[in-house]
Design brief:
This protein is mainly β. Helices cover about 0% and strands about 50% of the residues.
């Protein structure tokens, strides 16, 4: 199976983006999905997670109230809506799949991991 992210771009502070993560080769609807980000040279940061049925969502304090995670199991896609973007949100954003939502950025906690999409917030 694999995950493919898209939607990254360059935006000004205060702007918005919607990231997408499409899964294939596995039963997407049975996996929890997580977004993780990394600033080059820094550690991976857990951002947000959503349960397999979409009923439970979780956020890091740094993005709570600004980012919204969702999913469409019929399309095999998870989303991360980024609003009120700040310069410190600049990073590569990865999506990852696991059996249950785990609040960790460790790669070995996930069964599938995407290639990442770049988000740059700059004036």
């Amino acid at each position: 199976g694999q995950l493919v992210e898209s939607g990254g771009n360059s935006v000004q502070p205060g702007g918005s983006l919607r990231l997408s993560c499409t899964g294939s080769g596995f039963t997407f609807s049975t996996y929890s999905m997580t977004w993780i980000r990394q600033v080059p040279g820094k550690e991976l940061e857990w951002v947000s997670g959503i349960s397999s049925d979409g009923r439970a969502t979780f956020y890091a304090d740094s993005v709570k109230g600004r980012f919204t995670i969702s999913r469409d199991n019929a399309k095999g896609t998870a989303y991360l809506q980024l609003d009120g973007l700040k310069s410190e949100d600049t990073a590569i954003y990865y999506c990852a799949a696991s059996h249950v939502v785990v609040r960790t950025a460790r790669r070995d906690a996930y069964l599938y991991w995407g290639q990442g999409t770049q988000v740059t917030v700059s004036s």
